[in-house]
Amino acid sequence: MKPIATLTRMATALTLPLLLTACDPMLSLQGSFWPAWIICILAGLATSMLLMWQLIRLRLAPHLGSPLLIAPSLWALCTFSIWLLLYSR
Predict the structure, then answer these.
(1) 3-class SS at 34?
(2) How far apart are CA 69 and CA 46, in angstroms?
(3) Got the DSSP string for 8-32?
(4) Residue 41: CA atoms inside 13 Å, Cβ hemisphere, count?
(5) Buried b (16+ CB within 10 A) or exposed e, 37-51
(6) What stretch of H or E contains 38?
(7) Where are the transmembrane segments (predicted)?
(8) Are 36 and 87 in contact (CB under 8 A)?
(9) How far apart are CA 21 and CA 85, in angstroms?
(10) 12 pLDDT more than 70
């Protein structure tokens, strides 16, 4: 009885993402439809560049660690935060 329940859970876990793929919000910009994740990535890039510039201006960047780790992490943080703020309904 237990292997059947496990198999059912696995089947549900594998088919659920396929059903959710059509739930991507689209935005109309200048008559062209853009996926919202592209807008969030671009806004996250601009925000992270602004924040990194502020960290450099305030002389805090050398204390954070390697810029090769900090800059992409800041970009990801900004992108995911914008996504959650705008599309978390």
Answers:
(1) strand
(2) 17
(3) HHHHHHHHHHHHHTT---EEEETTE
(4) 5
(5) eebbbebbeebbeee
(6) helix 36-57
(7) 33-56, 68-86
(8) yes
(9) 20
(10) yes
